[in-house]
Amino acid sequence: MDGDRLVETFVELADTLVDDFDVIDFLHMLVDRCVELLDVHAAGLLLADQQGRLQLIATSNEQVRLLELFQLQNDEGPCLDAFAAGARVGHPDLADAGERWPRFAAAATEAGFAAVDAVPMRLRSEVIGALNLFRSQVGELDATALRTATALVDIATIGLLQHRSIHHHQVLTEQLQAALNSRVIVEQAKGLIAERLGVDMDAAFAALRGHARGHNLKLGHVARGVIAGDIDTAELLGTTTTPKPVRR
Question: Which domain of life is it from (predicted)?
Fold first, then answer.
């Protein structure tokens, strides 16, 4: 195992905060480096979608891509078991794994693979996917290689969850800022409506809101339309109750 290359890989897997971070490229790099650094001949990675269903995301070659798809289609195989259990799953001799994975073991053997290990992408109680490591020779995966594979997957998992958390925070921040910006526009539109229609601010807001709901539009969109003159304030009266006049 190339120590310098391994260190370089850990650094790359930890760097998920760059502006142009690409999840797909990141995970392809993970499977490629596993094949390069460990005593395995192919690798495939499945990642859970928002509904918790595993989806094929990266493989080291086309042969494994087809095998991983076969695993998903038949709902059977080491990656699915590792994901469900949150623990490493493997078999040193796939020719003997027919009882455990009858369809998958046959397909993997036919593809030229003799042994497999699946490592979950797990951080504490959260499991987000699993990595399959295939070998063409029968036998257990070397202990050092298994520890290294687990460490690589752990770093990748932390990086992905960190990126997801930061992205989620950014989305919430952007949504909050958009809401604050819209609120300013809505207040301006309320004042404009109140002045033009001679009603109080509550009635002006009711008219604005009623028009938005009646036309299936966002409140901010209607408010901008009122301010820009695209929506005639007189039209707003038809979508709400009779407005209360302003007390002079």
Answer: Bacteria
Residues linked to residue 54 through DSSP beta bridges, in sequence order: 48
Mean pLDDT confidence for 88-111: 95
pLDDT digits (tens, 9 = 90+) for 30-45: 898 899 988 899 999 9
User: Per residue in 169-208, pLDDT tens?
Assistant: 565 566 557 666 777 888 899 899 988 888 888 888 888 8
Q: What is the largest CA-CA distance in the chain?
A: 91
* CA–CA dist 70, 92 (Å, integer): 20
Secondary structure (3-state) at 108: helix
Closest C-alpha among 47, 20, 83 to residue 160: 47
User: What is the pTM for the complete model shown?
Assistant: 0.66
Give the DSSP H/E element, type plus range, for residue 182. helix 143-197
Containing 117, the helix (H) or strand (E) segment is strand 115-123
Question: 32-37 contacts: CB < 8 A, separation 24 or more?
Answer: 32/60, 33/5, 33/9, 33/152, 34/60, 34/131, 34/133, 34/149, 34/152, 35/60, 36/5, 37/1, 37/2, 37/5, 37/6, 37/9, 37/148, 37/152
Strand-pairing partners, residue 120, are 130
DSSP code of 240? S
Query: How many angstroms separate the CA atoms of 30 and 59, rounded?
Result: 9
* 66, 108 contact by CB (below 8 A): no
